[in-house]
């Protein structure tokens, strides 16, 4: 390579390495994220490609993306606290940080006593309205190995995936007057904390501090989306891959897997909680 080519190549590398971008690339933790709660409880491992989150009696911890995004897909691999994790909550979510008109998409992993299954709770806030909890038990031990947890968010639907399995769909039913998160960019967040007043068996099972410190692990951080502030046209570009027809509705294979989860692993659905919602919420009636 001549000197000018070298310069061009170096510039290209800088762009790839330092710009938040719509093209995906394997990211180190610090490229896309910052620590938001307790530096001393987040350790970078594997050269910054993975992190260890620590919960002990002094503190939990948390991190957030440096940028906010409007539409896209966020995914990461997580290995949850093994053994006795009762009373702990590990969360991975997107949030608009706008209090009263908040949009939020949540994964919360509720710990359990040794041998009892973790519960995954999801929730969706649109224009400030949440209270849309669903809960499933997992079909594998999420502390034995890393599994991929992702949120795909486009103009048509929000889909929560565990590995290749869609576990929740929130469809854009704006045409029927149902709010859909569409106008506000969201940041990506994660926290590990103690919540033994509600997390496990409704708060009956308390955290056992003799088992502390508790460790969860994250790696393969992948955010592909439209960073905001950024080019105003990105979010409305129909050519973004996550807006493709394959992501307008579930494929037949995905629909089968989704059905399987709901049949075999769902333990709570606000849609069918008559004591809480005597009138079925409209988005539940509208279907996926
Ligand atoms: C913990 O295990 C119990 C008993 O199997 C189960 O009922 C519960 O759903 C599990 N998860 C939580 C978060 O309590």
Automatic annotation (TrEMBL):
Residues 1-218 form the GH16 domain. It is found in: Secreted, Cell wall; Secreted, Extracellular space, Apoplast. Contains at least one intrachain disulfide bond essential for its enzymatic activity. Its EC number is 2.4.1.207. GO terms for cellular component: apoplast. Residues 1-24 form the signal peptide. GO terms for biological process: cell wall biogenesis; cell wall organization; xyloglucan metabolic process. The active site is at residues 104, 108. Coiled coil: none annotated. One of its GO terms (molecular function) is hydrolase activity, hydrolyzing O-glycosyl compounds. Keywords: Apoplast, Cell wall, Cell wall biogenesis/degradation, Disulfide bond, Glycoprotein, Glycosidase, Hydrolase, Secreted, Signal, Transferase. Glycans are attached at residue 112. CDD domains: GH16_XET (cd02176). It is an enzyme of class 2 (transferase). It comes from the Eukaryota. SUPFAM superfamilies: Concanavalin A-like lectins/glucanases (SSF49899). The keyword Cell inner membrane does not apply. Belongs to the glycosyl hydrolase 16 family. Catalyzes xyloglucan endohydrolysis (XEH) and/or endotransglycosylation (XET). Cleaves and religates xyloglucan polymers, an essential constituent of the primary cell wall, and thereby participates in cell wall construction of growing tissues. This is Xyloglucan endotransglucosylase/hydrolase.
